[in-house]
């Protein structure tokens, strides 16, 4: 996940990309690995030596895929959901507002499916460290395995523990207590973990809590205010994705019949078109030069192709509220 390789090698962890919603994470296995799908069959040994990102024809010549490097962004899309996970929009907001960078020391709970953990690890590597706490034993073990497979395990310590009861102190790790730059909480009762967070943070460190419900946010804010946190801010990050596509429009000539003598002349001014006297441009996929006329009730109009941008109606809505605060105790 941290590698910057250009050429596929045996043992690499890559994403086989057959489309936006058709990605699979695989480890290249020259001996027996094979990827088979409706996009064709690919023996891993035939992928070795190919350039990352290029189009690769299937062995049986009935399709193609692209092979991409595994990034934390693609991992958040392709991973196995063992829990609800954080997605890239919330993740980027968290990483920026927690002021994370190479060298940061971070505490997180719960680990869940490791979606956020992977992005944190990528941001703080190679000199930082993530201490992540998960009270569900199998989830903690599955996360450890994913981090090992994705080769980010040396930047992450997974601890199986109830963070609200046992806190975040790892006394066997020298210098951990009092050195944490940022704490991230994705817990049902985050306010129960705030005293434990303070026990490992240094002064001026940041905390972020993610909660789906506003009542959780209210309790968390009250606890933060009572615990000498400053800059307490809650935000909700909503995405509004736009779809841009070719659309045919019908434009009627609705000029006022009482003031005009040319009531039946179709409109002639069009953006994005060449004038009739100029050389026709090379044909595009869509017909920007279309000039078909039509008539409704004696009024003439012009059909034309145009680009339309509109928000996608099924865009993802509320995920949760992010509450940020800085610990600046006065005494
Ligand atoms: C929604 S998931 C976290 C998802 C994670 N942020 C991600 O992006 O993949 C919440 C996790 O917190 C764990 N959890 C809940 N209460 C906990 C506690 N008191 N201590 C540690 N982990 C806890 C749950 O087992 C669950 O795996």
UniProtKB/TrEMBL annotation:
EC number(s) from the headed UniProt entry: 2.1.1.220
Iron-sulfur found in the keyword field: no
Residues covered by region (Disordered): 253-285
Family assignment from sequence similarity: Belongs to the class I-like SAM-binding methyltransferase superfamily. TRM61 family.
Residues that bind S-adenosyl-L-methionine: 113-116, 134, 186
Matches recorded under InterPro entries: SAM-dependent_MTases_sf, TRM61_C, tRNA_MeTrfase_Gcd14
Listed Pfam families: GCD14
Cellular localization per UniProt: Nucleus
Leading EC class: transferase
GO biological-process terms attached to the record: tRNA methylation
SUPFAM superfamilies per record: S-adenosyl-L-methionine-dependent methyltransferases
Catalytic activity: adenosine(58) in tRNA + S-adenosyl-L-methionine = N(1)-methyladenosine(58) in tRNA + S-adenosyl-L-homocysteine + H(+)
Compositionally biased region (Low complexity): 255-279
Keyword Ubl conjugation: no
Protein name: tRNA (adenine(58)-N(1))-methyltransferase
